[in-house]
Amino acid sequence: MLYLTPSVLKNMVKKPATRNYPFAVREPFDHYRGELVINPEDCILCGSCMRKCPSLCITVDKKAETWECDPYACIYCGHCVSVCPTHCLSMKNVHRAPAPQKVLMSEKGHPPQKKKKAAEAE
Questions:
Q1: What topology is assigned to 48-102 in CATH?
Q2: CB of 76 within 8 A of CB of 119?
Q3: Hey, which residues does 68 pair with through a beta bridge?
Q4: In the chain, what's the furthest Cα-to-Cα distance?
């Protein structure tokens, strides 16, 4: 008991080594990859993000015109952002807020319409 007393007294006088997380948030580092964000208006639902995702957390369904991401399976590597041809994916420099239940990111997009040939239009 006497062996631990100096350590206990030191810890009682010093400030805590950890942060009170929800109330005290640390500033993100430079080039920090945080929450994945999609701009559904620019997405062409090509599926390149889904094919390149190493954790298979992105699902693109061109027929249903949906884009879904499981943020709990995402490893935040940024491969999907780098391969997107329309640059509709980006990463914020903050974490997602804590949630009481599991929520999937789901967006409804519209693939580009095929252009009709000039001969067919006439």
A1: Alpha-Beta Plaits (3.30.70)
A2: no
A3: 59, 106
A4: 96
Q: According to the model, what pLDDT value does residue 114 have? A: 72
Per-residue pLDDT averaged across 11-17, rounded? 87
Q: What are phi and psi of 37, to 5 degrees?
A: -130, 140
* Residue whose C-alpha is closest to residue 69's, from 100, 96, 29: 96
Residue 70 confidence (pLDDT): 93
Q: Report CA Rg, the chain.
A: 23
Domain limits, the chain: 48-102
**One-letter amino acid identity for 43?**
C
DSSP 8-state assignment for residue 94: S
Q: Quote the pLDDT of residue 86.
A: 93
Q: Which residue has the tokens 């997009």?
A: 109
Cα–Cα distance measured from residue 121 to residue 51, given in angstroms and rounded to the nearest whole number: 35
Residue 26's identity, in one-letter code, is R
Q: What is the pLDDT of residues 38-93, one digit of tens each?
A: 999 999 999 999 999 999 999 999 999 999 999 999 999 999 999 999 999 999 98
